[in-house]
Amino acid sequence: DRSVKIAPSILSADFANFGAECQAIEDQGADWVHVDVMDGHFVPNITFGPATCAAIRPHIKGVMDVHLMIAPVDPYIEAFANAGADIITAHVEAGPHIHRSLQAIRGAGAKAGVALNPGTPAESVEYLLDMVDLICVMTVNPGFGGQKFIHSQVEKVRKLRAMIGDRPIHIEIDGGVTPETAPAVVSAGADVLVAGSAVFKGGSVSNPAPYGENIRAI
Ligand code: DX5
Ligand code: ZN
């Protein structure tokens, strides 16, 4: 489905080659580049911060979609906006003041996203709908690539799409997206699919064609 955007997660890329990896996935048809920021506190893994985002920014022509799996969020929003993030997504579980965080993201000039862990109900974003440009439904517990898709989340996507109504809000799916799991979430109303392991498998910067094949297969 051409109206569905594919956002490869560079969590599955070669960390010593982010610039070339971002160029390769865009050349191979990626719509957005999804950047997973982890702090070893909100999630049990550590990736990188705003300096790395700023370094890769010039290598991305399109949308840099930054997913913050960090707590607290607010002290770092400006740094990620200054690094060139087009979209900054914060977790509803990351602190007591998600509404304030979303205001701060828009205030810093970025589009605002809110992410929900698998155990968090759709209703948790009901009073945030006028604050967000994107809702990220986690279909794995965040922290690692290559995990198994959690099917109970398809129903959450359907609920969210109904709740959103005609507001211009993306529903993004993150975790375990493959050619097998994608159709159910797309028919439930998702329009952005993050995929890490399913995009990067079999390819590399010196052999990028598999990235394109994998993107087209989703
Ligand atoms: C999980 C990250 C995801 C992850 C997806 O914590 O937010 O973006 O990289 O990886 P796959 O597609 O391999 O599940
Ligand atoms: Zn992510």
From TrEMBL:
Keywords: Carbohydrate metabolism, Isomerase, Metal-binding
Active-site positions on this chain: 36, 174
GO MF, one example: D-ribulose-phosphate 3-epimerase activity
Pathway of action: Carbohydrate degradation
Record text on cofactor binding: Binds 1 divalent metal cation per subunit.
Annotated positions binding substrate: 9, 67, 143-146, 174-176, 196-197
Binding site for a divalent metal cation: 34, 36, 67, 174
Enzyme class, first EC level, given as a word: isomerase
Cofactor: Mn(2+); Co(2+); Zn(2+); Fe(2+)
Protein family: Belongs to the ribulose-phosphate 3-epimerase family.
UniProt cross-references to Pfam families, sorted A to Z: Ribul_P_3_epim
Catalytic activity: D-ribulose 5-phosphate = D-xylulose 5-phosphate
Alphabetized Gene3D superfamilies for the sequence: Aldolase class I
Protein's recorded name: Ribulose-phosphate 3-epimerase
Enzyme Commission number(s): 5.1.3.1
Primary role: Catalyzes the reversible epimerization of D-ribulose 5-phosphate to D-xylulose 5-phosphate.
